[in-house]
Task: structure prediction
Amino acid sequence: MMRQKQKALAALLAAGLFAGWFASLPAATAAGDDAAAALQARYRACARLALSDPQAGLLEAEDWARAGGGMPAQHCRATALFGVERYSEAGEAFEATAAKAQDESSRARLMSQSGRSWLQAGATERALAAFDRALQATPGDAQLLVDRAEAEAALGRDAAAIEDLSLALIIEPGLTDALVLRASAARRTGQRGQAAADLTTVLSREPANADALLERGLLHLDEGDVAAARRDWLAVLAAAPGSAAAEAAARHLTGASTDSGTAP
Result:
């Protein structure tokens, strides 16, 4: 799931968060004059570089920031820091940029990016605080609810995670990540029927969804069906080789083989 979050952040950035807080710049700058157009073009170029070549993007963003690039340069730098896996620094940088945002919507999106950075850094309490702040501004944002639920689940707060995920699914019923995360939390809290129902929904739409297959294997294992669990984990290896889900499936297969005395 964490690698999917990296992809989701990259997609959000590529979609152009800039437009959200560009509108909050002073009117003389944001009115479409030559200076505003040049600023917007430079930000987009910097953001593309930060996503495609984060190290080069970091150098460009830091040069631009030193030259007085302001919020666009700072956000580009935060993006590049995330790309070079300096996640704690990225979390701090996104938060610093959010503090300067002039509208709640922009602040919420920047805090959500900070939260994802803190999740990657393993600073789950910081991530949860960032998502809380983002949701104060945009309480009906389904993806933010999913992100906060991921932090809550990592802290062992499965009941809170299930509540957030259920609300997210009311807002956007098709959220696959929410269904898989809710299934995982439901399994851990003994709600196997709910877990099975959510996984069936996901796998009926996406039969090769590696996260759902991984989680269904764990559900089978909890029910004592080691053979079914192994089938699902082998399917994960075939569906998503080299992924985080495949690494987890391989570990579970090794454990199942040790317990059962059979080869993976």
Summary: Residues 140-206 form a domain with the Serine Threonine Protein Phosphatase 5, Tetratricopeptide repeat fold (CATH 1.25.40.10). The CA atoms of residues 65 and 73 lie 5 Å apart. The chain has a mean pLDDT of 87.
